[in-house]
Amino acid sequence: MQFVPLEIQDVVLIIPKVFEDERGFFLESFREDRFFEAGITAKFVQDNHSASSRGVLRGLHYQIQQAQGKLLRCVAGEIFDVAVDLRRSSPTFGRWVSAVLSAENKQMLWVPPGFAHGFYVMSERAELLYKASDYYAPQYERSLLWNDPALGISWPLVDGQSPILSKKDAEGTPLSQAETYA
What is the Cα–Cα distance from 81 to 49, expressed in whole angstroms? Predict the structure, then answer.
């Protein structure tokens, strides 16, 4: 596995070694010793699986308490995955990084606690598997406004169409008013 820090060093793109032949492929999607060597020491306590259709945008979500680190992998289709630094003490506070994750490239993204996370589905359908380092706690969940001009996220909207959003995500909080981490 290769561990490639993105522009915000704590967010890491993970490129697995893929063994492929005419029968299919094999890869290790998680191996604790390799992750620890790369500085990702999270203990994962929950696995999640989501499916969405083209144009769906989920996020930008975070939990203000019980902050979750997430190890994300797209196993069907293709997504534009985004992490926003919400740690006030960080020199990259309010900045975002992104990666395209797909079933084809088999890459993963580590988004540590202290970040908001969201993704946009670029393919007809996409399925995302992810491990979380803390349990889902709806009472602490927050949603950062996906199109906040202060963030300036360049979402690759299909045909320039507005994304399909949940009510919660459509009513997300701008960064200037959001609860953030120390």
Answer: 15
Residues comprising the chain, all counted: 182
Residue 130 annotated to the active site: yes
Active-site option among 61, 62, 117, 120: 61
Q: Which CATH architecture has domain 44-177?
A: Sandwich (2.60)
| Beta bridge mates, 51 | 127
Q: What is the pLDDT of residues 18-38, one digit of tens each?
A: 999 999 999 999 999 999 999
Q: What angle do CA 27, 33, 37 make, to 5 degrees?
A: 110
pLDDT tens digits, 58-74:
999 999 999 999 999 99
Cα–Cα dist 71/146, whole Å: 20
Looking up tokens 């490639």, which residue turns up? 4
Give residue limits of the domains in the chain: 44-177
49 catalytic, yes or no? no
